[in-house]
Amino acid sequence: MREVPPVEDLGEGLWSIPVPVPHNPIGFTYVYTLSAPGGPVLIDTGWDHDDSWDALVSGLKQAGHGVDEVQGAVLTHFHPDHSGLTGRLREASDAWVAMHPADIEVLRRLEERTPDERGASVLEQMTRAGFPEQDLEAFRAAPNVFPSPALPDRALGDGERLDVPGLDLRPLWTPGHTPGHLCLHLAERDLLFTGDHVLPRITPHVGQFPLDSADGDPLGDFIASQARVGRMPEADRLLCLPSHETRFWGLTARAAEIVDHHEERLDFMARLLEQGPTTLWELTSRLEWRRPWADMRLLARHMAASETAAHLRLLEERGLAARSGPDDLPRWASVAQAQHPE
């Protein structure tokens, strides 16, 4: 578990408030608060837990604000460590909540399904990926499905200035980590809130489920989004404020490093596919992860498989991988292997 850093005054009404994510290796998510006429505006809200709420309220107090003074929150994306406290925030302050329309649509679809239905969907994904029966049984015994946060009430599109007087905060749509991920540019202060799109040391998770070829290309979107932020004219003078880890400069170089990491991974996977057809689970278990595959928790294995699926989707797009086998247990191989199996 990462140590939670202190609340920090970043000057001119901007504060960083680390909100813990209890019992999770993420450790914490930075919530940023910006002073504005009519009350502070938050960037993200944090995880839905009593300890997280207490940290947010306490951090706002250190910044000179009561939680009831918050006028609104802009969410970088829908993941629960960023959006989980939106419901409590609304109850305490009547704050508006803004998010990109693509992520609002994801939350709408999640809201239409019961936790049991969502758990059944995850189990189906794992089955089609080829997870062994012991993993499937472990999930059936303790299905791990994150709760869906409250729906935002404002849609915020690419480049659309936030409707708050005195605050020139503009979103950059950076899909990949989620369909509607936003970075937020505060131009007058040369600041970019990067959410989970660009992190200083780790590469953000980019996953894909279900395993349907028509279901978008999140890694392709992510790589294009990295190139977009790296090409910003002011990129290398921007101070980047991510949701995790530490603040950093050097956006162009860091975005390029993240792209290079994924390109190396794609090359390695393409070579593995030359060895013959493989299920998603088999391929994922052969890749290098931060922890040895045998030591990974079931949730981590599921996330790893979804990341491998995103890479396979892009390899399909590039004509370097082909799918075969039954729909309930597909396999992938290089195009040459698929056309001329031994």
Describe the structure.
It holds the Pfam family Lactamase_B. GO terms for molecular function: hydrolase activity. Keywords: Hydrolase. With 342 residues, this protein is an alpha/beta fold. It has a domain at 8-109 and 149-258: Ribonuclease Z/Hydroxyacylglutathione hydrolase-like (Metallo-beta-lactamase, Chain A). It has 11 helices and 13 strands. The protein has helices spanning 50-62, 80-83, 86-93, 101-111, 115-129, 133-141, 218-230, 251-273, 280-285, 298-317, 335-339; strands at residues 8-9, 14-21, 27-34, 41-43, 72-74, 96-99, 154-155, 169-173, 182-186, 191-195, 239-242, 322-324, 331-333. The strands form 3 sheets. A 7-stranded mixed sheet has the order 1-2-3-4-5-6-7. A 4-stranded mixed sheet has the order 8-9-10-11, with no helix packed on it. Strands 12-13 form a two-stranded antiparallel ribbon. Strand 2 (14-21) and strand 3 form a beta hairpin. Helix 8 crosses helix 10 (298-317). The radius of gyration is 21 Å and the shape is globular. The termini are far apart.
